[in-house]
Amino acid sequence: MSVDRHQASDPPPASGRGNPHLAALGDDELRTLDAHWRAANYLAVGQIYLMANPLLTEELRPDHVKPRLLGHWGTSPGLNLVYTHLNRVIRARDLDALCVWGPGHGGPAVVAGSWLEGSYTETYPDITRDAAGMGRLFKQFSFPGGVPSHVAPETPGSIHEGGELGYSLSHAYGAALDHPDLVVACVVGDGEAETGPLATSWHSNKFLDPVHDGAVLPILHLNGYKIANPAVLARIPDDELDALLRGYGHDPLHVIGDDPAAVHQSMARAMDAALDRIAAIQRAAREDGATERPRWPMIVLRTPKGWTGPAEVDGLPVENTWRSHQVPLPGVRDNPDHLRQLEAWLRSYRPQELFDEDGRPHADVLACVPAGARRLGSTPYANGGLMLRELPMPPLERHAVPVDKPGATMHEPTRVLGDLLRDVMRDTADRRDFRLVGPDETASNRLQAVYEASGKAWQAGTYEVDEDLDRHGRVMEILSEHTCQGWLEGYLLTGRHGLFSCYEAFVHIVDSMVNQHIKWLRVTRRLPWRAPIASLNYLLTSHVWRQDHNGFSHQDPGFVDHILNKSQEAVRVYLPPDANTLLSVADHCLRSRDYVNVIVAGKQPCFDWLSMEDARAHCARGAGIWDWAGTETGDREPDVVLACAGDVPTQEVMAAAQLLRRHLPELAVRVVNVVDIARLLPRAEHPHGMSDFEYDGLFTADKPVIFAYHGYPWLIHRLAYRRTGHPHLHVRGYKEIGTTTTPFDMVVRNDLDRYRLVMDVIDRVPGLAVRAAAVRQRMEDVRLRHHDWIREHGTDLPEVADWTWDG
Description:
The chain is α/β, with parallel strands linked by helices. It has 27 helices and 22 strands. Strands 12-9-13-14-16-15 form a six-stranded parallel beta sheet, sandwiched between helices. It has a five-stranded parallel beta sheet with strand order 1-2-3-5-4, with helices on both faces. It has a five-stranded mixed beta sheet with strand order 18-20-19-21-22, sandwiched between helices. Strand 21, helix 22 and strand 22 form a beta-alpha-beta unit. The longest helix is centred in the middle third of the chain and has 27 residues, at 260-286. It starts with 26 loop residues before the first helix and ends in a 6-residue tail after the last helix. Residues 1-19 have low confidence and may be disordered. Residues 27-386 form the Xylulose 5-phosphate/Fructose 6-phosphate phosphoketolase N-terminal domain. Keywords: Lyase, Thiamine pyrophosphate. It comes from Streptomyces erythrogriseus. Residues 1-23 are annotated as: Disordered.
C-alpha cells in the first residue's frame, strides 16, 4: 500500500558515511528483518481491532472486532521499524541498549516488539507466545481490565509513557548519565518536536560526558502529521532542517522513503554509521584523552504516517495523511466495506509466513532478536530499581548545628544542607549514582559546598572567568526547569539518586511533568515486577517570604497545593522550620523510595529551634507541641493554639507567643509546629494522616486555633475541613499580595505577622475582646508605625529586625 512519495535516501554527502549505494543487508538478513517488521505491524493492527480470531483462521466477522476501537496506528509502523533495527544492532554488536519512545501513543508497536522477543510473556505468563496468548494480547489492549494504549509502566522496557509530549529526549539523556556502557535510542515524534521542553532538551548534548556517560541516539520520526495538522519540521525544506539539527550540535543521518526494502537498507546503514561514530567518540575520549565537544550522530527517519495501512477509506486518502493518526477504519462492526478492508489489511502482512499454525513466531521473524537482558523489553535499565544501591548518607551529627537553647543562634538552612550534599557527592564519586540538578541556582540557593566534591557538568567552551565547570561534573545546571526535571526523572528511573533544587515560584513550570511522574509511580506500585526506585526529591527555596528583593513575580507558594492534589500514596510535603529539621527531612527523603518529596526551606538566616536529637524526634512525629514555647501549665487545657508550618511562619508564631506571654501572661497558649503537612489529613486519606483522636489531642476540639502557614491559607482548611474543631480554625498565609519590599513587610501585607496573630488571638478567645482591647490597640499601632518606618528608612523596625527569642 505504498504511496510512492519518496525514494529511500541515505545520509547527505556531507555526513561522510561511505558509499550510499552499498547494500548494508544481505538478502537473508533483509528478508528476516522485513519479516519481523511485518509481524510487529500485524500485531499492532490486531491489538487495535481484534478480540477474537487472532490468526485469521476464519473469515473476519464483526463479532471478532472490539466494540470500542481505541489506539493509534499512524506512528506504529515507524516505531516498529525502529524496534526491528535496534534489535539488529543490539544483537550484532552485543549492546546494552534502552529505547525511549517519545510517541508513546504508539503503544501497540512497543507491546508487539516485546511480545515477539518473549519479554512480554516472561513478565505476564498468561500472555503466552502462541495463538491463545496472541488472542489475549489483542483483547487486553485498551480494553476494560486490560492495558493502556500508551507505552505505559505496564509495558516491559518502558521508562517513558509519552502521554504528555515533550520529555522523551531529556529522559533519554538522564538515563545515559553515569551509564557509560549504555546506548539510549530516543524516538522523537514530529509533533513532540514542536514542544518547548523538547526544543530545549536538544542542548543536553552539551552536558553529556563521553568518558563517564553513555550515548544518546535521537531518532527524529517525521511522518508528516500530528492529530489534524502538518508537522512543522516535516514541512520545512530539507536543508533548513539539516541546518537546524547541526546547529543543535548533531550530525544528522537521513532515512527517507516508503519502499520497505529500500528503507530497511537505508535504516541499517544509518544505524551502523551512527553506532560507529558513537564508538569512535567514546574511544577518543576514554583512550586518547580527547576533550573537544563531539558532534553526536542522530537519525532523521521520514516515512509515511500510517505506512502500510489503508491507502483510502470511504474515498478519502488515509495513508500518509493525518487521517491515519488513530483508527483508520472506524466503522468495522457496522460497515461491511470497512470490515473487508480490515481483513485485507491484516492479510497483506502474510501472517501465515510469520506465525505457525499454533501462533508461534517463525524463526525468520526472531532471527534479529537479541537474547536475555539485551532485549529491549528485558533490559534492567528500564527497571531501574533492580540496579539501585543504598545511598551512603553521612551521620547527621557531623553537620548538625549546636542548639543549647531554642532561638539563640541563626543559620542558613540550605547552606547547612549543602555541606551534607557535598559529603554525599564525595562518597558517590567512584560509583557515580547521585546528581544534583537545578536551573542555574545551586549557588544562589546556598548549596555551593557541593562544588568541593564535584563541579558543574559542561562540555561546551570555557573562559578564564568561569568557575566550577567540569567535563566530568555531576552537578547539572541549565536554565530550563523542564530539562532539569527530565534529566532527573530519567536518572532515577534507571536506578540512581538525585535532588532537584529550584526557586519555589518557578517549580510550577514542571507541574505537568511531576503529574506524569506521580502517575507512573502510582501504577508501578501495583506491578510486582517493577522494583522501587529512588524518590524524586525537590528542594524549594528562595521562597515566597524571602523574595522581597525580586518582588511579586518571584512569589508563589502554590506547588504544595498542586502536589497534595495528587495520589496520596506517592506524595509527601515537608516544611522544616530550621537547619537541623531540614537535615533530618533531607536524610529521610534521600533514603526513601517511590515518592515525590517536596521540601520547602529557606536560604536566609533562620533561628535554630531544635537540637539534632529533638529535630529527629519532631520530624518523626511530623507535628508536635513545643511545650517550651507555650504557656500551658498542669492539667489546664490551652485557651488558644498557635500553630505554624514553615520557617517564616514559625518565627512569627514564636514572636506572637512571646508577645502574649508578655502582655497576657494569664493566657494558656499552646504552640504546635507542623513539619509534615499531610499529618493534617485524616488517616483514611493519607498514610501520614492523623486519626481524629490524635488531631483533637493536638489541636483540641473546641479551642481557637490560629494557624500561620507558609502558603495559601485555604489549603489548610481543605486538609482539615472534616475535623471536629474546623469551625474554630483560623488560617493566615500568603494571599497573593506581594511586591519588592522589606522581609517583614511581606508578612504584614499578608496578615501573617506576629502583631496580627496576637490580634487574632484576642478576637477569637472568648472574653478577650473587651479585657485585652488595649493590647490589641497596641498591636495595631505597631503595624501602622511599621508602615511609616519602612517608607522612611527602607528597613524593618528595629524591634523586628533585632528580635530574638527570650523564652
